[in-house]
Design a protein that fits this description.
Shape: globular
Order of helices and strands: HHHHHHHHHHHHHEHEEEEHHHHHHHHHH
Strand content: under 5%
Distance between the termini: 23 Å
Radius of gyration: 23 Å
Structural class: mainly alpha
Strand order of the largest sheet: 2-4-3
């Protein structure tokens, strides 16, 4: 790493940040798996209140060390100051969430200790017999890990900090799907393992499955009855704290809500124009998209779709590299995968390990479908894969030695990454890659979904009034039921996807607004840099500089992008 000790002795901020990463991996082996630390493969974190407090103590100690490091000679360099700002902002935001007891009510259909355990297994190496032995060890750790998670939720009950009832009902259903009837997800996962470990892998999978059964029964018989009168709406105080965590900025909810509505009206007009090209005479854009579902371009078969998505990303890399980006060879590698059964409905991306032995991967939840309309897949894979999440997050790993491992992995700010990915969708439209009206209408539909996220995430959690110029229930106040109906009426997504999305917003309040708010910052930063450089503005150079600066919260992102 390029970081050096201060001439006066003692670590500088980037070294403090990376020491935090090392210590965090000891407490959280799942983070170690994401980073590619082999020693983490057989372990799971302590999700109990005591385990959560240990992570919080590390954050507090690191903030003390950071204050000392910032006083040392050399700490005033630009690289050290950027890292120090990120580390302080992230740890402060994380501690605010911890101190408010959010970790004692963390139930979600997408992001919780339960989901992290399963996703970590999909990222654990499986190349050798010793890799599979580590997986067996990790599976045998599942009961203790989930017992700690259950202890945290029980502590939340004792402190009157309930999760949302809809989250609990959904997770009970997910657990039932993972447990299965004839075979569990764990049994299917270990099936490709070596015959020499078959007995051990089968036994370990059975142990892990037993822990799922125990957790499901506890959720159903103890937790769900105890929180049945709780609300899935978080309110203004919790929303502000969670939005800060996800966005790296203090959000003005009323301003963001108004921006979401302005984008809704802009996009609706543009969608109506494009829909006329797809299906002349269509009453709404979603009527045209429904026609696309039945009669438009589509890919048949799950494996065929995976291969098609791989080709889409490979073709994008070939077209963009050298023209609008300058990609290292290891960044050019990205894999298309099918998400495990029982996942939430939204596609997702996982970052490469630090040594790139595990590449970046996109994941498609099939939701039982075997036919996939192209209009939805194309823009989504520009978002999840190339030039979206993969180009940014893989580039961060590529430059980790020049910045710090913290800035390029653990310190990720959701709104920065999601904002870039939404910017990437728009960039592909600007560059002419959406070559048919169907695909362009699908892109606009995806943009509309992100505008609606801003409206309903803020609207339902703060119970705001629907404005008078809304085509939907003007003058009423948002509820989760109205949010569901609004998205269903203004989206091409199937009913199960819409339901999964609304449940997601209720369980991760403040996260969904980061897509559009982050995109706005990326666009503003690009235009500010263009205005500063004038005719000398080089978009490729700006892209690579922007993608090589590591994580930043939205408070700092605009300043840094504008100065490139």
């Amino acid at each position: 790493m390029s970081n050096t000790t201060s001439p006066a002795g003692g670590p500088l901020p980037r070294q403090v940040a990376d020491a935090y990463v090392d210590a965090l991996v000891e407490l959280d082996p799942i983070t170690g798996t994401y980073l590619g630390v082999a020693e983490s493969s057989g372990k799971l974190p302590d999700f109990s209140p005591e385990g959560q407090e240990a992570v919080a103590r590390l954050a507090r100690t690191t903030l003390d060390r950071l204050a000392e490091a910032e006083a040392r000679p050399g700490a005033d360099s630009a690289a050290e100051k950027v890292c120090a700002r990120l580390l302080r902002e992230r740890l402060t935001a994380e501690l605010a969430v911890h101190d408010a007891g959010e970790g004692l009510r963390q139930v979600s259909n997408l992001s919780s200790p339960l989901h992290h355990v399963r996703e970590a297994l999909t990222l654990t190496p499986t190349d050798t017999e010793s890799d599979w032995a580590a997986i067996a060890q990790r599976l045998r750790a599942v009961p203790t890990a989930l017992a700690g998670y259950r202890a945290a939720l029980q502590a939340g009950l004792d402190q009157h900090l309930p999760a949302g009832p809809l989250q609990v009902t959904t997770v009970i259903g997910q657990l039932g799907e993972w447990i299965g009837t004839d075979r569990s997800w764990f049994a299917d996962f270990t099936a490709p393992g070596p015959e020499s470990l078959r007995t051990e892998l089968d036994a370990a999978a059975e142990v892990a499955t037993g822990a799922l059964v125990e957790l499901r029964d506890w959720f159903r018989d103890v937790y769900a009855p105890a929180i049945e009168d709780a609300s899935d709406v978080v309110g203004r105080e919790r929303y502000a704290r969670l939005a800060r965590y996800y966005n790296g900025a203090d959000t003005d909810p009323e301003e963001a809500y108004a921006y979401g509505w302005s984008e809704f009206h802009r996009l609706l007009a543009e969608m109506e124009t494009e829909a006329e090209k797809v299906l002349p005479g269509a009453k709404t854009p979603w009527e045209a998209l429904a026609w696309c579902d039945e009669h438009g371009e589509a890919v048949e078969g799950v494996e065929e779709t995976r291969q098609w998505l791989q080709s889409l990303m490979d073709e994008a890399i070939d077209a963009l590299d050298g023209t609008h980006f300058e990609l290292a060879e290891r960044v050019r590698r990205v894999e298309s995968r099918i998400a495990p059964a029982g996942s939430a409905a939204a596609p997702y991306y996982t970052q490469p390990s630090l040594d790139f032995s595990r590449p970046g991967r996109t994941w498609l939840p099939t939701m039982g479908e075997t036919r996939f309309p192209a209009y939805d897949l194309v823009s989504t894979w520009y978002h999840e894969g190339v030039p979206g999440h993969h180009l940014q997050l893989a580039q961060w790993v590529h430059v980790a030695d020049d910045l710090s491992r913290y800035q390029t992995t653990v310190g990720i700010v959701s709104a920065n990454a999601e904002g870039w990915a939404l910017y990437a969708e728009r960039l592909m439209d600007e560059l002419g890659f959406l070559t048919t009206p169907e695909r362009r209408l699908g892109y606009l539909d995806a943009q509309m979904m992100r505008a609606i996220r801003v409206i309903i995430d803020i609207g339902m959690h703060l119970e705001l009034e629907i404005p008078a110029d809304s085509p939907f229930h003007p003058g009423e106040r948002w509820t989760p039921q109205l949010a569901h109906a609004f998205m269903a009426a203004h989206s091409s997504r199937p009913a199960d996807f819409v339901e999964s999305e609304i449940i997601r917003y209720q369980g991760m309040a403040g996260q969904a607004i980061g897509y559009k708010l982050g995109e706005r910052v990326w666009l503003q930063g690009r235009e500010a840099a263009r205005a500063r450089h004038g005719a000398d503005f080089d978009l490729k150079a700006w892209h690579m500089a922007a993608l090589s600066q590591g994580s930043l919260g939205l408070d700092d992102l605009l300043t840094e992008l504008s100065a490139l």
